[in-house]
Design brief:
Shape: globular
CATH topology: Cyclophilin
Largest sheet: 8 strands, antiparallel
Radius of gyration: 13 Å
Number of domains: 1
Structural class: alpha+beta
Number of strands: 8
Number of helices: 2
Helix content: 10-25%
Length: 146
């Protein structure tokens, strides 16, 4: 099983992927991470008690990888709980590289089955609450874990 590690100055968030529910979104994230796409990018959007968002190469929420991917919304894990990693988009089937991580369930229920959930933080959950706008992802690493 592959996991993602998002390294920041505030700590490391380790993420288990929902490969069964969102295989194409997971593959896209892994491919971008393995190319170093996310290294040095910021969390450009931080809304307390909602989400932290990153993955924009422009740093302002308008950039992406140069292509779009389809949403995957029918799996069992399409619920935006605390720590869930989800694909940001500007409308259905317009995701690419931007993602967000949820602060809690109360304020994210309306995102269920509108944004693709493709993983969840299982270690370093406290880092989510420490991220501020402009904090950098030093690197995003994909590792094999048994």
């Amino acid at each position: 099983m592959k996991i993602a590690e998002i390294h920041t100055k505030k700590g490391v968030m380790k993420i288990k992927f929902f490969e069964k529910d969102a295989p194409n979104t997971v593959k896209n994230f892994i491919d971008l991470a393995n190319k170093g796409f996310y290294n040095g990018l910021t969390f450009h959007r931080v809304i307390p008690n909602f989400v932290i968002q990153g993955g924009c190469p422009r740093g302002d929420g308008t950039g992406g990888p140069g292509y779009k991917i389809d949403c995957e919304l029918t799996g069992d894990n399409q619920y935006h709980d605390r720590g869930v990693l989800s694909m940001a988009h500007a409308g259905r089937n317009t995701g690419g590289s931007q993602f967000f991580i949820c602060h809690n369930r109360q304020n994210t229920k309306h995102l269920d089955r509108n944004h693709t959930c493709f993983g969840k933080v299982f270690e370093g959950e406290e880092v989510i609450d420490q991220i501020k706008p402009g904090d950098v992802m030093d690197k995003v690493v994909i590792v094999d874990q048994d």
